[in-house]
Give the backbone structure.
Amino acid sequence: MNRIYLALAAAFCIALPSWGADIESTQYTKLVSRISRVQGPVVDGKYVTFTADGSARFTGIAFDFEDYKTIHPFQRIVRRDQYGKPEKDDSGKLREIILFYIAKVPPATREIHYRMVVNGLWSTDPLNPDTAYDYDNGMDVSVIPVDYYEVFQTNSVKKGEVTFACEAEPGSVVTLAGTFNNWDPFMYEMTEVSPGKYELSLPLPRGTWYYDYFIGTSQIPDTTNHNHVYTKDGRVASVVTTD
């Protein structure tokens, strides 16, 4: 780890190289195999591949959906021959070394704003001509349009409000209860927004809340939310935190 990396780590949260965190390994390998040259960002479904010149000592990227607080280091591709030596082209020159980072697009996103760090200096992406001015942070950022998609899951749609999501048999009566209503299973009935999919948006004060869904007398944890705890009576309750 060089001095630039250490200096950046002291000021920011830098993600350690994870080789495709949150990306299924087969998909990640497929995306890496498609990288053949340094070019502007490439959108492939729910993923974006960013590349950079391999001559830099350190290159990283930060995104608006993380408030630019995490710097993700680029990985390095060195093409090797059958003997494990760096490949050379027909003229005998070493083939281009490519730096890359693959990002997963967050749900309900139409474009990504990002900045890059090259050898300790912040900049827009030199390979992407599309930029915008971020007035909240007072800086220029690079912009890339992405494919919009939605995921049916419990999420905080805005400050102080949570949209709860539940999958159950079509035509069921599904209710929501938790620490926000003293576990009353009759107060909040969810709406079936499509066959077998139920939602309810609820304003909640800032804090951490435990909740579950009820179908008849059955208490069911939220399968779209992996944040669970055990209650005093030994049951599993889902957890959501509002800002």
